[in-house]
Fold:
Amino acid sequence: MSVRATLAGTRADGRAALVGYLPAGFPTVEGSIAVLAAMVAAGVDVVEVGLPYSDPVMDGPTIQRATETALAGGTRTADTLRVVEAVAATGVPALVMTYWNPVERYGVDRFARDLSAAGGAGLITPDLIPDEAGDWMAAADRHDLDRVFLVAPSSTQERIAMTVAACRGFVYATAVMGVTGAREATSTDAPVLVARTRAATGTAGLPVGVGLGVTNGAQAAEVAAFADAVIVGSAFVAPLLERRGDQAAGIAAVTRLTRDLAAGVRGAGSAGR
Amino acid sequence: MTTYADARPGPGAGATAGPDASGHFGRFGGRFMPEALIGPLDELEQAWRSAMADETFRAQLDQMLREYAGVPSLLYDATRLSQAAGARILLKREDLNHTGAHKVRNVLGQALLTKRMGKNRVIAETGAGQHGVATATACAYLDLDCVVYMGEVDIERQSLNVARMRVLGAQVVPVSTGSRTLKDAINEALRDWVTSVDDTHYLLGTAAGAHPFPAMVRDFTRGIGDEAREQVLALTGALPDAVCACVGGGSNAIGIFAAFVPDPSVQLYGFEAGGDGVETGRHAATITGGDVGVLHGARSFLLQDADGQTVESHSISAGLDYPGVGPEHSWLAETGRATYRPVTDAEAMKAFALLSRTEGIIPAIESAHAISGALDVAAELGPDAVIVVNLSGRGDKDMHTAAEYFDLAEAGPELGPGEARQVADERAGDLHFDETPGETDPLP
Structure:
């Protein structure tokens, strides 16, 4: 299933989509499949499956701890594809969020082929800019995959236009100059960046997703007022880290959070758990 | 295949080799970085290029290097080492620079650039602490705030350098993620930089990372080779047959190679840390024993597993203990312009002892890798050869490691001078320190 179709649907419904992230293999491979299934059941529209990597420079301590756990547990690239397959079977689109080296090591075209075969929708590539992405752009075309690149408050208008032109599915606007992690307040940079990005996409064009820092339904509602998709990562990981060893409690907490966020992207939602 | 010379820009601009306009050395280098840092990297590149074209900036940097850092360093005709090696060996004495290594050239250059960019805060990564100490020194000298990221494992191993940084006024931040070593300190510095880039420069310690760092660090360290080339011509009337350097990230090596790259008669040798031996898997010989991939912003050789996860490196020398290497070295290796070979811990320590005993110069263990490699090159090239070796740093920082390796620290108080020497000789192997001149082949 493609992200394009899902985001066209949420747009037609007059709301933002909820995009939820979890690393494959956290807390275990089977555990990540179970948690993601609960997230989908509680209202996540698009799933980002994180591919655990040894050197995650864009991630703050919460996601670092989760991906370290996944790697220490022996999670391999093939396991990430297995998680994608399980998520895709639930009927929502599954993107893989991955640093570039594991894909290059697997083989760019081979990865695209296997991702497509697993029912995956495409890739979000936090350390791959379109300037370096020739192989991936071609492979994504060959296998009809979405490719989500990032724009940032520090991006020039020229780079935003170039990045938007390279994206398919949506463009990921990083709301703050910083790494992943929950933040108390939403960023004042975010609406400005989204407006600058829309200047490049056109109003009916490529959807704009906003990520970095969204923790609760109220923040999600704030972001949903100006973005097409609200991306949440660390906030899903944190309650699982707090409840390690008790999967049922972790899933219950994640379910509560998802419901709150799902209400948020529909314009409601609370300010905390 | 594209040759190294093909990738070089036209004459002028200091005639440095590469990279192309997008920061690539052949298929290596580039920018594999979050978009948020692309703007800052562009800004840095512009600031650096404009600074290097500005005579006032260059004059100020030259003056700092001369009057503060003790540059140019000597090129020393090491006659006793040459006798042992069987060829004429000239040592580029970067160990005599302020802070005891070539690194002062890079940190002064980047710190002055930081001032020029109007920034007041510097962050850096450090493994053994050498780059951290050099950065803290430059920041004290130029009145900049300094934060050094250092893995918890390294902090335990290098407590004296932690103290040195703190004495110099730097804040040392322990890094507790990943393998808690150098590569994780780089990750943490990058995470700081993406949040602080408005007022902060990331003073990267080696010729690696995203463009423009590899080219910028090379150009700040290329004085090593520019000076050595002039000095060797003045001393011998000819270019050397070979230039040797150790390679971790590769800043001292690229600094001495750069001037000689356009001289086809000069063979370039980079010596990587072979650790316990490349075949054991416990090494840091990235080009010899690694594969091409992407780490810390550039495509280059690196140590990785089947899934592309970075593998921890191993070396007795903390300064070479890094699973990546600068992209220009990968390009020099792939084009055949330079040759890279591994030197094991044991071989390096033997050369460490040899240089100490023949010349009264205790090298950094990093630099001892270059000495060891040069001994092999000398044997291959024969007695008429002239070999320049970059003695990139002094060994004071390594005395704890050396004392442990040679069993000197524990046995010391109970042994007489002769006995201690005997123990050291046993560990150092068959070095024939007692040879008097005349017993070995005379110099040409």
